[in-house]
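subagent[fold] <- orchestrator: predict structure for attached chain, return tokens only, no commentary.
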Amino acid sequence: NNWGTKKALSASLVGWVVLCFAACAFAPLSLDSHDQYDVLFEWDSDGDGIADSYDYDIDGDWYTNQEEIDAGTDPYDYMSSPSEKSQRWLQERLSTAGGYVSYMNYNFDYSIAQKTDFSDEEFNEQEWAEAYSSILPVEIGERSGIYDWRWGSSAEDPHMAEASDQTLIQEFLNSVEETRFSASISGGPLDSSNSVGIDHPTNLGDGPLDSIPSAVRDIVWEPLGLTVGLQFLILGCGMGTLLGGSQGLSRSMFGQMVPETRSAEFFGFFGFFGKVAAFIGPLIYATLTVMYDSRVGVFSISLLILIGALMMRMVDIEDGRAAAREEDARNRGISLD
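subagent[fold] -> orchestrator:
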């Protein structure tokens, strides 16, 4: 069925255009909860250097949270204690306690740039880390003298740094906007404050086509909870489905219009133009990616495929087969009359 081959190939090309659009729409899900940020600041009610979310005795009255819950007292209030004779000195100390601690999210795996020779166009992460080292979970290498994040032994036992200067914390949040990191605050006077850097993976930027992934993220990815990994998996399955079919269909349709007596010549041209396309496509993609960004590069490829699909509508397979038969007859000295 000649028209079936042509329609199937047209559908395959349209599918490739859709997949290219989907590739342009790739977008990591936005950060919507405190524990998804990179650098975490949390309130430490009793000033013992342990964030409330990790502290088994949040109010510091020497009774565990569970003991207070069992006794019917408030584990967040040092004045509410199972003991009626709570030491006055302890209450006086706790009345002035409270502050922030900072620690790293173990789901985050980017180090501070491990170099000192930053160009003028680069954000100097080492100077940035040094400027806020008094409130950040960082450490400096003894030999290298280079800052890096200090993680701790595990996600259940992260290293926590005291961050008592709230003014400096707010200044740090503002500075994060120029970086590739993110930070969030939970509890205390600065509760719910957060910041996402301009180069953070979830920040889509302001490129010519960045409105596409932003809209698709709001309409599709986030409602369905599809992370970038799942988006890539779906795209890969779609490409795998179309790749073999489109190649086979194109050769099948081309072969129907090729004279048998000149098949080597025609398929030589077929292979040659395949090589040309393999050169021009990446060249266009690379050029536009350098000039703009990768989404523009992918979009340019989709336009080439779309143009090819539109041009194929003008192909008359029956006319091509008739011309091939005439050429075979002429080369073999056979009359078709």
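orchestrator: received. Logging for downstream: The chain is about 50% helix and 10% strand. The chain has two domains: 2-28+209-332, 34-60+97-196.
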